[in-house]
Amino acid sequence: MHALGGDGGLEDLIAEARALAGPTCAWSLASLADWAEAVELARQGASAAALKRAREATSEFEARGERYTAARLMADMLPFLEGGHAAAAASETAERLDAMRAHASAVEARRYADGAPG
Fold this sequence. Notes:
By secondary structure, the chain is an all-alpha fold. It has 7 helices and no strands.
């Protein structure tokens, strides 16, 4: 939530999540930290790098059977991506959500298919 809200102290939270992830065998903490870094990259205008990082992070969720969580994380990131990157990710994410019958989330993702919320 801190990543989406642009709250200060995100770097400290990411570091704390990574520090806890290893000893507690909480893979999701490390993946969420990676995703939060992706959101931060997108906020800085580095959409291509952000999208690459987000896909790496969400692939961990998918690999462990958390397909909806992976797709929702991508959907939550869409507002921070620029034009073409947002459109491509929105279409892909909406298709995944529709395939899971998460139609309301797919509609939300599709709002960014033209590069801007509608």
